[in-house]
Amino acid sequence: MLLRPAVLAIACLSVFAGSSSASALVRARRGRQVGACNSHRSQAVKKTRRVLVWDKPAGIDPDSGGQLTTLYACRRPAGVSVRIGQNATDGAEYVGNVATSDLRITGTLVSDVFTSGLASQEACYKSEDASDAQCATAATETARVFNLTTRRSLRQTLAGAAVAYAFSPAGAIAWEAPTSPGTTGSPLMLQAVGFNPSGLKKGLIETLDTGALGSSLQFAGLTLRWTNAGQSKSVVVSNAG
């Protein structure tokens, strides 16, 4: 049976409209699958099923002259990215002034240690007028925690010239540092602070021990373990929850 021209036109229009609708649906589905966070997968530094940490160039480090990179973290697939740190490569004369280390992802909790002033510290040690004590504390270290679900963050400045650091996603940070930075053989001091993993509210800093502390700190949950003069010690840190 032959179709009349008007009927044929309607049939063709229906097929075209159906094809366009299907294409639009595929595009929409693809857009939802990629998401704002997952769009940075090619720049990933570290990732889990729920979180992506990525970086991008950020120009020149003004203190060392090296290349500067900024780190971001986001909740997959479509979460907003938050800045969590920076890294700088060495310049012609000095090391990069900033560095991000100890990067960890636990659930939607991201933690790291951000160090700044490294180029200034190196310049200090090269100066004939500066003392070792001044140079030892020229760089600062800050432990930082980001909850990508609640979008809250925590920053804890560590003691100058910290020599050991430990983090528990259950809600605690611990670190060791010389009681007299820049002095050879200075006894070490162990400090810790608890925090609520959800609200990231900190408790009070506690001094747990001093003396000939080992440089290995380990958390099992909220139980912190370390050694002093070769003797094993442990304590449960309150997470301020």
In a nutshell, what does this entry contain?
With 241 residues, this protein is of the alpha+beta class. The protein has helices at 5-38, 118-126, 132-136; strands spanning 44-47, 51-60, 67-75, 82-88, 98-106, 109-116, 140-147, 152-157, 164-168, 172-178, 188-194, 206-211, 218-220, 223-228, 231-236. It has 2 domains: 36-157, no CATH class; 160-241, no CATH class.
Beta-strand level of the residues, as a percent range?
35-45%
Task: Report Rg.
Answer: 26 Å
Largest sheet: 4 strands, antiparallel
The ordered H/E elements are HEEEEEEHHEEEEEEEEE
Please, what is the average pLDDT?
88
**Separation, N- and C-terminal Cα atoms:** 79 Å
How many distinct domains? 2
Strand order of the largest sheet: 1-2-3-4
Essential attributes:
four-stranded antiparallel beta sheet; flat; alpha+beta; 241 residues; 2 domains
